[in-house]
Amino acid sequence: MSETTLEPAFPFGPLSTEEGAAHIRALLADRPMSRMTMPLGGDVWIIHRHAAARSVLSDPRFVREPFRTGERTVPYYVPFPPFLLSTIQFEDPPQHTRLRKLVQKGLSPRRVKAMRDSAVTFANSLIDDMVARGGPVDLVQSYSLPLPIQMLSDLLGVPSSDRDRFERWSSAFLSVSGKSPEEAGADIGELGAYMAGLIAERRADPQDDLLSALANARDKDDTLTDAEILPIAFVLIIGGFDNTANFISTGTAALLRSDEQRARLLADIDGLTATTAEEVLRIGRFAMGMPVKGGVSLVPWVATEDVEIDGQLVRAGEAVAVDPASINQDPEAIEDPTAFDIGRKDNPHLTLSYGLHHCVGAPLARMELQVGIAELFRRLPTLRLAGEPTFNFEHISQPMTSLLVDW
């Protein structure tokens, strides 16, 4: 299919990788955004261009308060759980700014750097278990999920005696848990009660962990209340488990699909790990060679007044969301954007958002992704696919649920 005959419809697909790339190029050339009607919440503008996305993501005139208060349903494919609407992700300035500043003090680069050695050790213990069992194994269940779960337990300061319960309760947030809504709700309730108790303990007797840092974080005369810390912990659990596991699985699958890029990594794992992680964040799913569909977006915002973005008028009260597939393949921002290049030096992808809502857990996610990919290929250089990956398209994050590998 040639680009000249494409009508850049949105949503679109599924298309082959080549056709999907051509369709995205046509969209980017044709308009900055498309209007579509979601199954829930009505219409939303979906932004395709990188510059337009950066503009919206850094503009305080776009807010999420109507979603947080229940005035509006989030325009999306599936409903957002009520507890998620109460987290920092749905706050706006000045409350968002205040919470973010205090969280960043607790989730510092120093703290994340100190966790790297333990991440390497645990990753290798998981690989030891895989080797002892023999392949093929499901990488999602054996490696991609357990690694971030362990790291988040360490980060939050969950005592080793409580790890089994914590992991069981926290799995209610996971897209691959298979739990019914009733089971998940019960687990989340028990986890909330447990975390509230742990926060109170850390406020009275601080330890060297994130909950202690949050419970005792101060900015001038400002502190976080227990009621504010709990939703922050929930966001970290959701992002720290599910999203990071998806990135590790996606990155592994993308590398196993590309003999050239995998050979580059194996030849210089330490030198290429950081740029490999960024390229996986930018274009990992596309690089897997799976059918390409257009329509998935990040969490939307609502315009508080009429705003013109890249020539398109967005009226007050209209919802706007970002299409990560398009913005991360915009040739105006990224050179040769459809190429999977693990050595890419200039990589301004927006997968972890930007501006006001840049992912507060980005340093942790990057560290876990780097360690997860580096140690896996360092230990198992002959790793290969043993089946096609499977996905859960009914979940908000549309995650990979299994990935069979052998070596």
Round the mean pLDDT to the nearest integer and report it. Answer: 88
CATH superfamily: Cytochrome P450
Q: Helical segment tally? A: 16
Largest sheet: 5 strands, mixed
CATH architecture classification name: Orthogonal Bundle
**Proportion of beta-strand residues:** 5-15%
Task: Predict the CATH topology.
Answer: Cytochrome p450
Rg over CA atoms, rounded to whole Å, is: 21 Å
Distance between the first and last residues' Cα: 37 Å
- What strand order characterises the main sheet? 2-3-12-9-4
Count of distinct structural domains: 1
* Total number of strands: 16
Q: Which descriptor suits the 3D outline?
A: globular
What fraction, in percent, of the residue positions are helical? 40-55%
What is the C-level CATH assignment? Mainly Alpha
Contiguous low-pLDDT stretches (5 residues minimum) are 1-6
Structural class: alpha+beta
Structure description:
This protein has helices spanning 17-30, 50-57, 65-68, 82-85, 95-106, 109-133, 139-144, 146-156, 163-170, 181-204, 210-215, 226-257, 259-267, 269-287, 324-327, 362-379; strands spanning 12-15, 33-38, 42-47, 62-63, 137-138, 218-219, 222-223, 292-294, 301-303, 307-309, 312-314, 319-322, 384-385, 390-391, 400-402, 404-406. It is α+β, with helices and mostly antiparallel strands. The protein has a single domain, classed as Cytochrome p450, CATH 1.10.630.10. The protein has 16 helices and 16 strands. Strand 2 and strand 3 form a beta hairpin. The strands form six sheets. Strands 2-3-12-9-4 form a five-stranded mixed beta sheet. Strands 5-16-13 form a three-stranded antiparallel beta sheet. Strands 1-8 form a two-stranded antiparallel sheet. The model is unreliable at 1-6 (pLDDT under 50). 50% of the residues lie in helices and 12% in strands. Helix 8 (146-156) packs antiparallel against helix 12, helix 10 (181-204) packs across helix 12 and helix 12 (226-257) packs parallel to helix 16.
